[in-house]
């Protein structure tokens, strides 16, 4: 492990101390800085000295010798710590590198990231190598250690066992356990996950929950079992109850749940005036939601909702750092902290005009600074998807009596299939389509009907899914065959076909899950995908999430998974997967 990525070596620390004695020179000085002191909760004026990637001094003095020092006069501007995204899913079509660098441009200089895709898509050693390489970026990239698959898969024991989970928990880049979607199992009798939770706490790493709609009794039990935080509150009252029990709470503003302003208003109505245990998250939103940035948008919503400016900035910085026990490293402008700083034009505008991350400019006076880093994804076992099987007419047989009915972007209910599915095409204005989940290795398939996805689209093929398996949805079997073939040709991605023509394609050349390109390009493709699907009758907001969560067992009521169609509450396999 590259130890220096997570703490400064003695030689580096001695040089940082030498800067104070003026035996070494700072690399950057922010002169006449009006900055947020998170400890006093006050705006103070000072000079901020930066040496390489660390803040070494904040005070009234300037070095006598400024030769070779980059001195920036910040008069008339305001400086806050870099923002922290405490709950990122860095694989929602985008990839971790592009998301992080894009986030940094609007001031989100630290990301706490889900590790789930690495468990499915590559080996642990290669994942760790990637994580350490990403930590060399100006943006700080930390990770979680998952305890459960979030779906029902054949390889559960291979991926989630003592050796694997311990290795993740003990890595310096891993700052929490969770998020815990298998909490019903822990409540019942799963001592294996409970042991991992306790191991995380022993290592002084919090355990994040995923507890939507949980009752008071359930929340109390989960606190006793070791849960530290939760980001699933759907109302101000739910936030209030979690805070009263000692939970840290992430207020969510995501593409599926843009709830932040509502939650803040309801908290104010409940008389909440302390924000110390609150942070804010965008919870892995789809690309187009990030057009205006990431946590800067959350801070702006908080300010516009009447939260005092200092508290809004604290929620996005120091509070989040404290949640992960990283307040000595992140979340403040003070000696010893990583040099993550956002320079603002005004206190009430949370989008910075300049951003410094680990002492390097990401944006300066409104102009982006390109660091020209190229990630060789193949090195980490994350190259183009190479499917070694071909879809056949036999695969497209649909005779199951039970289908999935979409209630919204992500929630599915079971329904009895009344149409004749033994046809080449589903005719008429019905909103029913063929649905197949196929093993990426070609060993099994699950076939049924989905109601409510679109009314007319011929075929969609996607290698983007929770488990990395292949999703096919459409009204025409020939269009499905063409969509699959084209998706396979481009090395993974999302392909739409209608009446025998490819009408959209999004290459996901990083393991069939992630786009290898700039965020602004991906944002446009995401909007194009949504627009096409809406024209074909899709009536919800977030198509990528609809595809991602088809297999997700943390959502009601029925799911299509690698084991078959499953009743989420009972964990019963209603119809098993079929071997090809």
Give a concise summary.
By secondary structure, this protein is an alpha/beta fold.
Task: Describe the structure in your own words.
Keywords: Hydrolase. It catalyses: adenine + H2O + H(+) = hypoxanthine + NH4(+). It is an enzyme of class 3 (hydrolase). By secondary structure, the chain is of the alpha/beta class. It is 27% helix and 26% strand. It has 17 helices and 29 strands. The strands form four sheets. Strands 1, 2, 3, 4, 5, 14, 15, 16 and 17 form a nine-stranded mixed β-sheet that branches. Strands 18, 19, 20, 21, 22, 23, 24, 25 and 29 form a nine-stranded mixed β-sheet that branches. Strands 6-7-8-9-10-11-12-13 form an eight-stranded parallel β-sheet. Helix 10 crosses helix 11. The chain is globular, with a radius of gyration of 25 Å. 52% of the residues are buried. The mean pLDDT is 96.
**Poorly predicted ranges:** none
What is the radius of gyration computed over CA atoms, rounded to a whole number of angstroms?
25 Å
Per DSSP, what share of the residues sits in E-state strands of 2 or more residues? 25-35%
| Ends distance | 42 Å
Helix content: 25-40%
Mean pLDDT: 96
**Number of DSSP helices?**
17
How is the main sheet built? 9 strands, mixed
- Would you tell me the structural class of the helices and strands? alpha/beta
* Principal-axes shape call: globular
- According to DSSP, the number of beta strands is 29
């Amino acid at each position: 492990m590259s130890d220096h990525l997570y703490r400064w070596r003695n030689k580096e620390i001695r040089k940082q101390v030498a800067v104070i004695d003026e035996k070494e020179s700072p690399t950057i000085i922010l002169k006449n800085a009006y900055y947020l002191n998170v400890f006093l909760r006050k705006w103070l004026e000072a000079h901020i000295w930066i040496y390489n990637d660390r803040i070494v001094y904040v005070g009234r003095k300037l070095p006598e010798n400024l030769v070779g020092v980059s001195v920036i006069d910040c008069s008339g501007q305001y400086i806050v710590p870099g923002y922290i995204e405490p709950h990122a899913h860095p694989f929602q079509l985008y990839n971790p590198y592009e998301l992080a660098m894009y986030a940094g441009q609007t001031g989100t200089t630290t990301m706490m990231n889900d590790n789930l895709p690495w468990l499915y898509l590559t080996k642990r050693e290669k994942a760790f190598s990637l994580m350490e390489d990403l930590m060399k970026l100006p943006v700080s990239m930390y990770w979680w250690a998952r305890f459960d698959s979030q779906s029902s898969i054949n390889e559960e024991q291979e991926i989630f066992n003592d050796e694997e989970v311990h290795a993740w928990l003990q890595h310096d880049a891993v700052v929490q356990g969770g998020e815990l979607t298998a909490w019903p199992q822990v409540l019942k009798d799963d001592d294996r996950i409970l042991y991992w939770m306790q191991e995380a706490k022993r290592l002084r790493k919090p355990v994040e929950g995923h507890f939507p709609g949980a009752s008071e009794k359930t929340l109390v039990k989960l606190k006793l079992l070791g849960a530290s935080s939760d980001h699933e509150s759907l109302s101000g009252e739910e936030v209030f109850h979690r805070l009263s029990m000692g939970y840290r709470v992430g207020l969510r503003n995501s593409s599926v749940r843009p709830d932040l302003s509502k939650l803040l208003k309801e908290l104010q109505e409940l008389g909440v005036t302390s924000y110390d245990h609150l942070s804010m998250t965008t919870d892995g939103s789809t690309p187009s939601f990030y057009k205006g940035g990431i946590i800067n948008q959350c801070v702006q919503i908080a300010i516009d909702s009447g939260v005092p400016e200092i508290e809004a900035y604290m929620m996005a910085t120091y509070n989040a750092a404290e949640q992960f026990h990283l307040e000595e490293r992140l979340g403040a402008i003070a000696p010893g902290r990583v040099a993550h700083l956002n320079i603002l034009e005004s206190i009430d505008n949370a989008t910075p005009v300049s951003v410094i991350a680990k002492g390097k400019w990401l944006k300066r006076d409104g102009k982006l600074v390109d660091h020209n880093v190229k990630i060789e994804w193949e090195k980490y076992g994350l190259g183009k998807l190479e499917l070694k099987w071909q879809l056949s007419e036999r695969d497209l047989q649909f005779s199951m009596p039970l289908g999935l009915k979409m209630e919204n972007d992500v929630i599915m209910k079971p329904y009895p299939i009344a149409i004749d599915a033994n046809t080449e095409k589903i005719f008429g204005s019905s909103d029913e389509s063929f649905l197949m989940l196929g093993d990426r290795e070609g060993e099994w398939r699950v076939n049924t009907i989905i109601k409510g996805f679109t009314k007319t689209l011929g075929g969609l093929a996607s290698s983007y899914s929770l488990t990395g398996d292949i999703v096919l949805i459409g009204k025409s079997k020939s269009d499905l065959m063409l969509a699959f073939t084209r998706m396979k040709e481009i090395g993974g991605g999302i392909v739409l076909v209608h009446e025998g023509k490819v009408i959209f394609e999004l290459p996901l050349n990083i393991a069939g899950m992630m786009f290898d390109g700039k965020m602004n390009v991906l944002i446009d493709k995401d909007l194009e995908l949504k627009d096409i699907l809406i024209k074909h009758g899709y009536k919800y907001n977030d198509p990528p999430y609809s595809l991602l969560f088809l297999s997700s067992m943390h959502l009601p009521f029925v799911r299509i998974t690698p084991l078959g169609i499953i009743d989420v509450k009972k964990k019963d396999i209603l119809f098993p997967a079929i071997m090809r």
